[in-house]
């Protein structure tokens, strides 16, 4: 299982307790670890899904399918909210 953690916080905390001559090694090892996910890729995927939902909403609105329009609007809003959460890093 992968956990999302702050590399910066981990380095700061380890450097507090490790002898000073290990700090560069700790920093290097941690920074070489791959990220659990690519924030920009996640945001891009969510934006694509939000755009598709918005296009579907317009499609349904033009044809008078109000129930489907509402569903598409709800999906688009959910994707936009998810984008905001990811951009903030999930932290308030």
Summarize the structure.
With 92 residues, the protein is mainly α.
Q: What attributes does this structure have?
A:
0% strand, rod-shaped, mainly alpha, 92 residues, 4 helices
Structure, described:
With 92 residues, this protein is mainly α. The chain has two domains: 1-36, no CATH class; 39-88. Helices cover 75% and strands 0% of the residues. The protein contains four helices and no strands. α1 (7-17) runs antiparallel to α2 and α3 (39-63) runs antiparallel to α4 (66-88). The mean pLDDT is 87.
How many extended strands?
0
Which structural category fits the helices and strands? mainly alpha
Shape: rod-shaped
Largest sheet descriptor = none
On the 0 to 100 scale, the average pLDDT is 87
Task: List strands and helices in order, with pairings.
Elements lengths: L6 H11 L5 H10 L6 H25 L2 H23 L4
Helix pairs in contact: 1-2, 3-4
């Amino acid at each position: 299982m992968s956990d999302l953690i702050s590399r910066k916080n981990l380095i700061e905390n380890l450097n507090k307790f490790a002898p000073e001559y290990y700090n560069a090694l700790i920093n290097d090892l941690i920074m070489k670890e791959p990220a659990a996910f690519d924030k920009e890729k996640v945001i891009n995927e969510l934006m694509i899904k939000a755009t598709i939902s918005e296009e579907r909403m317009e499609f349904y609105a033009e044809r008078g399918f109000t129930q489907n329009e509402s569903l598409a609007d709800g999906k688009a809003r959910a994707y936009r909210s998810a984008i905001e959460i990811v951009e903030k890093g999930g932290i308030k």
